[in-house]
Amino acid sequence: MRKLVLFIHVSLDGYAASKDRELSWAYVDDEIFKYSMAATEKADTALYGRNTYEIMQYYWPTAGKKPGASGHDKQHSKWYNSVEKIVISNSLKDNSSAAARVIRGNVADQVMELKNKPGKDILMLGSPTAAHALMERGLIDEYNLFINPILLGGGIPVFAPLAYAEKLVIIGKKFFSQGVVGLFYKRQE
């Protein structure tokens, strides 16, 4: 079975986005990009919520071809353009973009079908609201949390209340520059 791996930036007080849904507070540099790129090499599918997908789709398809594009932009753009993209959304129309497949309705069953298909990992970047629905059903296999040294005081939480407890096992930690701490967990089997 394929793994569903969540990569998400987190404020110290547990938010994935500020009150006005922005993410400019999240610190990202070459060191974090390098770590993230190792994960993308193990994945052939990207799973997004609608908001995150729209942000990604605006930038990544052409980022690698822009004058002065960084090595990271070239590499991630190439990956983004080559993987299957799935968007969890009730507001996007089915097949609204040839670049991605939209799923809605019984999302948990559709994600489980996706996990049961042959292939590499499924990478979920950000998308906290969509992630809440998958957490509730125990569908996220690994959590890669990039804890940023900021208190937002409100916004979109990384974790929503769950109907049951889910035990996690730490599989790694990394201290990045600027005080970002990476904590990496998997579901306890």
Summarize this entry quickly.
Helices cover 30% and strands 29% of the residues. By secondary structure, it is α/β, with parallel strands linked by helices.
> Mind telling me the C-alpha Rg?
16 Å
Strand content: 25-35%
Number of domains: 1
Please work out how many helical segments DSSP would assign: 5
End-to-end distance, in Å?
Answer: 14 Å
Q: How many distinct beta strands?
A: 10
Mean pLDDT: 92
Q: How would you name the oligomeric state of the polypeptide chains in this document?
A: single chain
Q: Which consecutive residue ranges, at least 5 long each, have pLDDT under 50?
A: none
Instruction: Give the fraction of residues assigned to helices.
Output: 25-40%
Strand order of the largest sheet: 5-4-3-6-1-7-10-9
- Under CATH, the topology can be stated as Dihydrofolate Reductase, subunit A
Shape: globular
SS class: alpha/beta
Biggest sheet descriptor: 8 strands, mixed
CATH class: Alpha Beta
Order of helices and strands: EEHEHHEEHEHEEEE
CATH architecture: 3-Layer(aba) Sandwich
Structural features, described:
The chain has five helices and ten strands. It has 189 residues and is of the alpha/beta class. Helix 1 runs parallel beside helix 3 and helix 2 crosses helix 3. The chain has one domain: Dihydrofolate Reductase, subunit A, CATH 3.40.430. The protein starts with a strand and ends with a strand. The mean pLDDT is 92. The strands form two sheets. The chain has an eight-stranded mixed sheet with strand order 5-4-3-6-1-7-10-9, sandwiched between helices. The chain has a two-stranded antiparallel sheet with strand order 2-8. 30% of the residues lie in helices and 29% in strands.
